[in-house]
């Protein structure tokens, strides 16, 4: 790919692009190793790059200065690190898992996670403690008030009963963020959130699901049978579960698609190289106007996605509460996930049958980008939420 194109795709501040480059170089030696390792071993290898290490509490609101004195906020740094790891060629599923833990749990719940008895934030940063987010149940997903998992008062703690399903990393996680009913009905104060060790008395792992999308990341169920939780397991106050959920969800929707930036850049690079080299009807394939249009659309999708995601990271670094960014977060998640699907469709059309051959230099995994339309909230429901922000009387 020409230097001009590389400059086009590196439109961020120089300090951010250096972080992307640095993590790419550091991750390159791990690509083959993480592809051969099981998930937990690969996780700890990537954690060794310090991608999961958040700024120290004293520097919580302060950006770190780059070599030339330019300040890069911690959220932007995390996003750039994940992009660099993906750009090295690390499996997209691993990139997704890193991003999900960072933006879905570590950043929004850092106060709760810093006070864990017997565990420290360093254990999470080192990959020794793996988190999972347990919200969905078999009887309901997008409607949190349909949950049937309960946490009832039991002495000075709680007794947890129920089950959570489709939980990313549940088969291997050490600590789960679990949402449960502590009240009745659809009151905004009916739900609470807890930090639950896995496994522990009354807490077991259920079924593990085989997936066609992001298959390297395990997914499964967690089962709770009179699991005794101390009062300190409660996140925030009893009845604040909906507020906790709103925060974690806004963070996740704002930045979860950051995991795709590296794979998207690799996809574009490989497609451009193929179109430039492939001979087609006695000319290079890239000479076709149709091919040129598809490549340009891919570049536009990547540029738009990077711009949106780094804008969200900058807003969070500036101290804007994630819940105030709920609409922008939804729009970003919708836009980038749909751009990822479109990019993959273009790459598949230009690669032909090679897109579907194992070991091909032009692989096109359609399942994983399509799954992005669903996780962190189905795009159709997110559109409803955005419309409601405009004052339309639309219901779910």
Question: Brief overview, please?
Answer:
By secondary structure, this protein is an alpha+beta fold. The protein has helices spanning 3-9, 14-27, 31-36, 39-47, 74-87, 92-106, 110-114, 121-125, 241-255, 261-277, 289-317, 326-351, 367-371, 379-389, and strands at 64-65, 71-72, 131-134, 150-154, 157-168, 175-181, 191-197, 203-209, 219-230, 234-235, 279-280, 283-284.
Can you walk through the features of this model?
- There is one protein chain.
- The protein has 396 residues and is of the alpha+beta class.
- It contains 14 helices and twelve strands.
- The termini are far apart.
- The relative contact order is 0.11.
Write the layout of secondary structure elements.
Layout lengths: L2 H7 L4 H14 L3 H6 L2 H9 L16 E2 L5 E2 L1 H14 L4 H15 L3 H5 L6 H5 L5 E4 L15 E5 L2 E12 L6 E7 L9 E7 L5 E7 L9 E12 L3 E2 L5 H15 L5 H17 L1 E2 L2 E2 L4 H29 L8 H26 L15 H5 L7 H11 L7
Parallel strand pairs: 3-6
Antiparallel strand pairs: 1-2, 4-5, 5-9, 6-7, 7-10, 8-9, 11-12
Helix pairs in contact: 2-5, 5-6, 5-10, 5-11, 6-9, 9-12, 10-11, 10-12, 11-12, 12-14
